[in-house]
Amino acid sequence: MTVYLPIAELSVNILIILGMGAAVGFLSGMFGVGGGFLITPLLIFYNIPPVVAVATGANQVVASSISGAITHFRRGTIDIKLGTVLLCGGLVGATLGVWLFSLLRSIGQLDLVISLLYVVLLGSVGGLMLWESIIAMRKAAKNQPTQLRRPGQHNWIHGLPLKMRFKKSKIYLSVIPVATLGFCIGILTSVMGVGGGFIMVPAMIYLLRIPTSVVVGTSLFQIVFVSAYTVIVQASTNYTVDIVLAFVLMIAGVIGAQYGVRVGQRLRGEQLRALLALLVLAVGIRLSIELIIPPKDIYSVVSAGFGF
Amino acid sequence: MRAFGRLVLFALALSAAGPASAQSLERQVGDFPEKLEIGISTDEISITSDFRGADLTIFGAIDGFDANLLAQGKYNIIVVLEGPKDNATVRKKERVFGIWVNTQSMTFELVPEAYSLSSTRDIATIAPPRDIANMGIGVDHMRLVPLGFIGDGSSLGEFRNAFRRIREESGVYQRDPGGVQFISSSLFKASVRLPANVPNGVHVVRAYLFREGLFVAAKALPLRVVKTGLEQAITRAAHEQPIVYGLFAVTLAVITGWGASLLFRKD
Q1: Which of A195, A231, B71, B217 could be A61's S-S partner, Cβ–Cβ 3.0 to 4.6 Å?
Q2: What is the reported pLDDT for A86?
Q3: What ipTM was predicted for this assembly?
Q4: Taking CA atoms, what residue in B is nearest to A240?
């Protein structure tokens, strides 16, 4: 059964797209991640033009993050003030990112930059996560208590000016690193089609020392707004949001996520992280192979009307 | 699925002329007595969303022909369906530090987005290759003028060849030597292929008449290709109302995400 994607301008098998959405939704529910970093590379592997994959991936992130964000809002585990500062940086970053996206596209280097960013980010984040979870599993095997890394000491970030009090997080922190983090994630959202939670959450915990209880909700708050903003800006500058593709993905994704959550609750934290790390590494390796092996055709043709 | 819809449009183009011939662009060369007439039943084709390519049939007639020459098969016809024109950029990848990177590019000015050629026989045997080349008939003779600075021009040939090859491989440039057939003494039928990814816009049907290797007459008709259906409506919305389209995409995501969490809530 095929369906024609009007913006990607190609026919795809709807069952494959549904399967992709459901699988990524399942994994994102299981690991508690947005899934943008999986959906975009998968779409690229399935020959969806990277420009469309990225913009559509951001749209899928909105759907997969919103229910989590609402749950956290109800429970009161979002620091709105902190989230707003992150968001301000995020919106500026996303705007710059879409501009960069158009620029790279016009000089023909967009596909390369997307792949390179994925390889670098997935490789480093996956590697670190795997390392950390292996250590945790070893300690668990030896029956040592895993120490929570939440030491009270301050790092240089806490010496920066423009400090602000974030009541809900119970911290007194400069807005500079918060907005900068939001800004960087905003760029990633618009250039890579990811929510960026897999970078933002560790950065908030380890660099900014924000209490874990509000980290996930606050990062989801920022992700929903930044990715929604990115979708609108991508749609109006690059015309690359494929609504048919996005809709099929999100329907399958939200259903898959419900089952993923149930499986995830049965697995132990460090096992879960090790599995996620392996998955992240596998996607990164697959993308890097694509960059290294000789392409089928070293030439490509791009029409001005619809520039890939 | 209604795959491979075969669309046949036809009209008898006798010298009495069809409705579309009023807009035709005529060219008559020298003192040849022959005149060329062509016709298609419509000047607009609507393509639905499940379109998988089709054949367009064009009818034509030679007027004032020499019966002797016709009997000996000395008349030859070439019919071309040329799509709307746009600039096209060819990029070349090279290995840089172990990874494949687009390093060189060349943009060709206003090349057709689609090009289907049909003829009574291989165009190289219809007229001297130089004449065919001068008239710019056929993918091999299409004018590919690079835009901007291209250095010493040594790579021009390589980029032109790559462009032609990729466009032919993707099916938007096609040729069919034998696609034009005489159905009675001077009446002919030409089928040109509309590829599945036929671009929207004004296409031009051009017919060329040759007598014993000499170009006699040419005739052209415009043909509008309009895509219809839901997919086309989406494409139009995305390009004409991009902000509304983006807002709609986000709303859809919010409803889907929120709806699912309500639907699957345990309490």
Answers
A1: A195
A2: 93
A3: 0.85
A4: B238
